[in-house]
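Re: the pair you flagged

First of the two:
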Amino acid sequence: MKTDDFISMLATGVTPVDRHAQRKSFSMAILVGAAAAVLMTIVLFGLRHDIRIMLVTPLFWIKMAFPAALAVLSLRLLLRASRPGMPRQASWLVLAPGLPILAVWLGALVLLINAPAELRWQLIMGLTWRVCPLCIVLLSLPLCVTITRAVRQMAPTRLRLAGAAAGLLASSIATMAYCLHCPEMSAAFWGIWYLLGMLIPAIAGAILGPRLLRW
């Protein structure tokens, strides 16, 4: 067989690779998982009775901005970690989720300093500290499933990092869904109990990543 014929045979039926396949896969995983988290919030917990008022309350959107920022940063980290050989210049993404956490902690510190001493403990503990982290973990489960399936279609090599980023992404989006129900409006509460609920899936992802994401 001539070389030209051999090359032609190999090229027969070859279709171009979709350069946006990764983003499409993650987008679908996030949309399906987020829809499931919102539906679970409505069915299991119910919406806040004053949700219409909250939608025009700036503090409510500040509360939503905390997990939203973590979701964006963890998604960027996950997209990098799902490709073989994450470049060194992207290493800053590993530390980037700390920025919104520090911002909330700073806001919480200002809030507590200016609050009367007898109210500080209430601002930290709120009314739902016993169930808040567990609710976030529960709502993150469908997102963990859909996002893990999307990552498995890629070729991650840093499995613990990818697992942690996937868990943080899932729990951050789940927290946004939980905000539709949660009555807590204190940054001191968010910086502890919301964060704990988001860290549990992230830590679980780091532990289980080598087993679940191996390809």
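Second of the two:
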Amino acid sequence: MATAADIDAMRRAIALAARGLGATSPNPVVGCVIADPDGAVVGEGFHQRAGGPHAEVHALRAAGERARGGTAYVTLEPCNHTGRTGPCAQALIDAGVRRVFYAVGDPNRQAAGGADTLRAAGVQVASGLLEDEAAAGNAAWLTAVRLGRPHVTWKYAASLDGRIAAQDGTSRWITSAESRADVHRLRALADAVIVGSGTARADDPHLAVRADADADADAGAGAGAAAVQPLRVVVDSEATAVKPGARILDDAAPTLIAVAEDAAGEPPGGVDVVRLPRADRGLSVPALLRALYERDVRSVLLEGGATLAGGFLAAGAVDRVVGYLAPVLLGAGPAALADASIATIAEAARLDITETVRIGPDLRITATPKER
């Protein structure tokens, strides 16, 4: 049975794991804490980048001989395969670790089985310690492994009465500078940022992460590893919204334009293009997410607009909602969400609010769908 010290050590490992957010994809974020036989912490580590040493290796290097006879606390079941790095289960055995606590079992069949290998070597293994907390921190990777598509966060900014622009179409700026800085933090943690053709035409967005986004990051989130620029994606069914000279075509970050298979238009030359089947409205969301998954995208930030968000929600492809609400009333103008195939109140997409935070004068609400 886990003690208070065990819980504290695993919570520290979860905090360490969060430091890799935005830098490890398509791998998971993982944290590890090593305690000696007397319970003193002697080593810590986290997975810093894809292809680099795993969390257990960093922690074992820090602990050295003091790990022998001790306990390892790992947020994800130690891997059992040799890829770009060796199996962590064997590294723990070789280090003489006596006990291993891990939070979440590895759903990746290629890497799973570390717990069985540890037990076969005589190591005491316990699973599920702070499982929900660890899984929440690894939601993007777990969603991708289990569903074969990226985890999708829909972000929007609106007035208190739910408008994303005024009646004349003006929208800069509804929310505060603090909220806009926070959005850059979200971008820094995502593998791809998606907008629709309407947003591309109206705003000519840049979508790259601002250089000082790491300074705006929450403590422990993305603070320990260099984040990479996300893939900028425009869903442009007819291939007419992105024009030569658009800000999204610069070299600040990679760009992908998704167009219909039978689109009459032609995207600007020199940009990556994927052609996808049409759906009832726009392009097939599942096909888009499959195309992104094949490009090693494991987390998506859906930034706009209302029509695209409605299509994702109707497809059951929204895993988290982050809404920035400004203390402003507009009374008219476009709503944050367009048709999502919801006809009656009984069909409403119900959410569980997981967090409410003041961001400057605004309110940031984070929620997840009740039915996944």
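Residues 214-221 have pLDDT under 50 and may be disordered.

-B.
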